[in-house]
TrEMBL record:
Organism: Marinobacter nanhaiticus D15-8W
Function: Plays a role in the regulation of phosphate uptake.
Keyword presence, Glycoprotein: no
Name used for this protein in its record: Phosphate-specific transport system accessory protein PhoU
Metal-binding recorded as keyword: no
Amino acid sequence: MKKKEDVYGDHISHQFNEDLAGLKEDFLRMGGMVEQQVVDAIDALIDGDGHRADEIRGRDKQVDRLELEIDEEATRIIARRQPAARDLRLVISVIKMVSDLERIGDEAKKIAKFALSLSEEGKAPRGYVEVRHIGNHVGQMLRDALDAFARLDSELALRIMKEDKRVDEEYQAATRTLITFMMEDPRNISRCMSIMWVLRALERIGDHSCNLAEHVIFMAKGEDVRHTPMEEAEKVVGN
């Protein structure tokens, strides 16, 4: 694959370059924090580690605080630098993308909450294989979305968008399996329902990762591919 060129940060003003670079670095730092939250929450659930689950829930405040700081940073850049064209797309996209990162953090917090309750009640009899599988899938989507942002890689972003449909299919299959099991053995409904909520949170993480990818395409191509058919998005990336 050809190397992607970062078209940002080539201004005469050294300070403007630093402002944009700092914004990108802070976004990626927040992304790394959220990515680790997701990984740790899944591990806590599968390992039945209530202590780790409780610690993950506490980390959510750090993510919320960083979201506010990045929003303020982006607002200052708009006010002071009055960016245009590609730079404006970067700043606006970051403002929107931090919201998706914060929501991914919220979903990780939900998973941690169910991990904590299941560590106290006892593990559910089914669903952990599906959690691990879908968790790995959406975790890779999130990592790829952050990588696509860092390299301004619209082709990688497009692949992430295509993965979202597969995640939806995996989620639907997993919930059908759990519903069938609960119908056969109603004694486990409560704990299986917790796993179903975890699967729902993972599916939402996939949705938010897809949103991140759509913003990367907007940054790279100047075209908004949200709510457009995949064929149209492919044409945008191919141009």
